[in-house]
Every structure is written in structure tokens, then in C-alpha cells.
Amino acid sequence: MSLLEDATATPVVLGGVRGGPDLPTLRQDRWWVQPVVTVTVLTAFVAYATWAAFVNKDYFAGPSLHRDLISPFYSPCLTESCVPGSHPGTILTWWTISPALLILIFPLGFRLTCYYYRKAYYRSFWWAPPACAVADAHGTYTGESRFPLFFQNVHRYFFFAGLVFNVILTIDAVMAFRQPGVGIGISVGTVVLCINAALLWMYSISCHACRHLCGGGAKQFSKAPVRYRIWKTLTPLNANHMVFAWMSLVFVALTDLYVRLVASGVIHDYGFHF
Amino acid sequence: MPDDPTNGTAPTAGAGAPAPAVPDAQATDEVTMYLWRGDPGGGEFQEYVLPAQEGEVVLDVVHRVQATLAPDLACRWNCKAGKCGSCSVEINGHPRLMCMTRMDSLPPGEPVTVAPMRTFPILRDLVTDVSYNYEVAKRIPPFAPREKTDDERQAGGYRMAQIDVERSQEFRKCIECYLCQDVCHVIRDHEENKTAYAGPRFFARSAELEMHPLDTTDRRELLQRELGLNKCNITKCCTEVCPEHIKITDNAIIPLKERVVDAAYDPIAWLGRKIRRRTKRSASEAAALAPAAGPAAVQPDAPVRGIPMPERIPVPVGTMTGTPDPDADADADADADADADADGGAGAGAGGGDRDGAATPDA
What ipTM score was computed for the predicted complex, to two decimals? Predict the structure, then answer.
């Protein structure tokens, strides 16, 4: 036996020259597929949502159709320009343009600051990096340490706002069981709104900020057994956050499309009543 | 030699094409390897063709190249079981362990490129100098447990519940292969960030300590201001390449980011801290505990330095040929203290000392 101080240390070279070829990547698989798919889907969603937000009509299938279906892009409809019968009714008289523009700020902020979507758009749109072990497209890099990206830290507040909207959209889904002039019933639109609300709840509660706030921030689980149980329940959901992110994103657009088609009379909302 | 099926029959040393093209009709009973040969003065891919053998991993083929075609090929390896973290390279551009990459998992009939890890300086051929990581490790404030209570002293040590240590145990699976550090674009593509960025391995280490119920140090401000946590843009490449399948991003980096939000960006959390009594050591106190030497010393053309040795740790001569894990003391203390019912910290030790002596057969 000897002492470590008697052993000879291997000298450490700091800095130095990197090995391997000076190429952006040596990968020969189709690493570009994922960024292309992400860009395509997100661009399509943004284009559709922008159009749907500005069009400001056909977002509510009301009593004239014996339905109570409102698009998630326009709920809660609070402004004077809202279609009569859409709920909860006019509260903000000073807002004269599309009510969707007022509403979409919050879901947009929630998704824009979401840890999963950050990965998706940093890779696909910003190419920082486009894929693992593929060189990023920027000469310098400061990450989320400077303006404006340090605002990503407000994610938890958008999460809270998102919860409020989830409650509202759940109420909308319940209200959709009403069929004015007929009674209580179930239609395809009812099911669509219920699924939409459920997916948005799953997306919200699988959020990383939610997992942290509910229990992940606890220092000692044995002294916070309720928080531990919540954290333990949320953890497997959190592992599937990406799945819920995509499913809820696509379905919210499909829900708006379905309501729009029903409200404009293009299709009939099949259902039955009691 | 040609009769020996393990030997290469066409040992053509190619004039290193940087990105080898896929051959038209590669015989599947042969394997073509493009291995990076070079040193800090330069290098190129060399082509080696060998008979294919069933059940091999990339390290086996590299060893056959070493044994038959290129005895001066340098590669680092040790356990051949995915537990020592020595044989990290980039296989077909993917950061991987050679010993855990089966040849039949790679595209059949296509050449296999093996290059050294891109993020670290090359020593020779497939061997890189990963000492940057040891410098970063020294900046992480070590485990600082609270005082034992009288009951705990009488009982002989700390007592912890399994649920209190299981979060940290995930990070103790780390074998310090540094593939996560290699793939992280923050330092892979931006050398200048090495001076102010700890990297995924050390975020996991910090998370392990932050989540330890006995630890008393608050590392959040240090992570935010000195260790570059907010430079990470959570693209999850570290998680993708981890051979131990540690969920570095979801379970270490994002929880740390949320804890930094608690400390620095959340007014409600700030109010809560003001109302409740603070129990953790401040960031400045934690920073004072960390040794001053850090990756700030990592500069191109910096002189050769030796890592300072801890004092009076008895080890058998001959087993320590590299650098010690600067956290070894803290880990040992933690393991000793937290060894009751929880087995806290008794997982695969993350110390680097025993692995740095990994053989580098340069024969």
C-alpha cells in the first residue's frame, strides 16, 4: 500500500486539437426526417390557427342547429363581437376584433414555453442543433441565458393560465350535451369536445412544471407523502408529455374544424337525445 | 495469415476519405471499418476490411484490427460490459460505447466509421483527453450532510427512507462515459462555452446532490450563474445517447431548471422563502466550498497541468494511473453515512479514478 500522493499523476492537457474530420456530421441515417416533420406539422397548425383566429365567424353551432358547440379557439367568448348565444357572454366591450386573438395568447404561451416544444422548435426551426451529433447552425450560442429566451422561465404561469382554460373547455364539453329546443343528448360534436378537453388536461398535467410544483420540488418525500404520491402518479404521464403535446395540438385544430363545418352548415352533427 | 479467418484479408490502408461513401455491393461476409487514425497534428480515416464474425460488437472488430492489421491503433477500453465508460467513440456519427454496439445493429453491408469523441481534444486515434470533465467536477460543491441528531448518533448513523433516496440513485448509475458531454452541442459546437458550462453529466451530479434529503447546500444560484444551466436548451441528446438510460433531461436538468425558477424567477416562491425559515446553505457559501480551479482554465494552447491530488488517501500502488474523482471523498462520506435501510448512494460508484487507468493498447 502507498499513499495517493506518492503516485504519479497523469498530466492533463487542457484545450488541444479535436479529432475526427471537420464535417457537420458523420451520420448517414435520415436524421433530417424528424425536423422536417416537426416543421411541417407546426407550420400547418400555426397557419390554420392564424386563419381560424382572424376569420371570426362559424365558431359556434348554436340553438338554430339545436346544438351548443363552441370552438376551443373562441372559448370563453367574452367580447361584444361574439355570436349571440356563445358563452359566457359579453364582458369585454372594448375588444372589437376577433375574440380568438385575446384567448389564444395563453395556450400559445403555454405551448411556446413548454419544455417539449422548446426541444422541438430549437431543433427544427432554430437548428440548435437540428439533430444529435449534427452541427448546429450558429456561430455563437448563449442558450436561454439572455433576452428574450430567459422568458421561457415563465412557463409555470402559462401552465396556471392553461388550467383555467382547461376548466372552461371542460365546461364547454359538458354544455355540449345540451341540445337547445330538443333536450339532453349526445352528438359527434359532444364527443369531439370531450376528447379535446381530456387531451388538453393530459397535456397540462403531464407538464414538467406541473410535476415539479406538485411534488418534484420537495426535498424529502417521506415528509410530504401526498406530494410524493402525486409526483409518482404524474411521472409516467410526464414521460409521455410529447405524445400528449402532439395529440392535443392536432385535436384542438380538428375540434375547431369540426365545429366550423357544423356551424357553417357544411356537415350535419349526427347525434341523439333523451 | 490468410488462412486465419480472424485476420483481415484485404488490409488496405485507404487514403482517408472524410466521409466514406456507401459501396455498391459490399459482401455481407466482410466488414469494412473506417477508423480515424491521427493525433493533434492531423489525421484521416483508414479503411480496414475483415471477415465478418457473428455476435461481435464494434470493440471486438476494433480489437481484431488492432491484433492483425494495425497494431499501433490506439483505443481506450476496459470492461467490455458497458460499465466502465472507457470505450466512448462516435460510430457512424452517433456517440456510443464500442462494447455495447452490436455489429448486426448497424446497416448491413455498409462500412462502419469509428471516430473519436468530437468534443474533447484528441490524444491519438480513437483516444481523447476527457480531463475537461474532471475540471468541471471540481466546481460542483460536494455533498454536505446536515448534523446528525442525537437519536441518529445513538443509532450509529443517518436513517433514510427508500423514497427519499431513489430519485438520486438513478443518477448514480452514471458510468462517466461522457457521451452526454460529447453530444451536447453547447460545448460540442461552441468551444468557448467550456469556460462556463458544466454539461449534462454534471447537471445530473448536481441534481443527485440537490435531491439528496441530507444535503444542506443550495446550488441553484451557482447552477444559474456559474455552471451555465440556462445555456442548456433541453434538446435531449444527452438522454438519447446515455448507455445507462438515465433520463438526464427529464429527471435532472428540467427539475434543476424549475428549482432555479423557484429561486430566481418566481415571485410567489420568493415570498414563500421570505415567510418560511431558510434552511439551506446560500449559493455564495456553496461557491466558496467549490475549489477555485475550474474550466475557466480551459483555454486553447494552455500549458500542461497536473490535477491537484487529494491528501492521504491510501491506494494500492499500480491501480491509480490517472486522475482521482474529486467527489470521491464526498461520495465515500455519503455512502458511509447513508448506508442504513435506504442503501443511499450504494449504487454503481461514479468515481473516475478506477477507470482512468483503462488500458490504451498502443502496441
Answer: 0.91
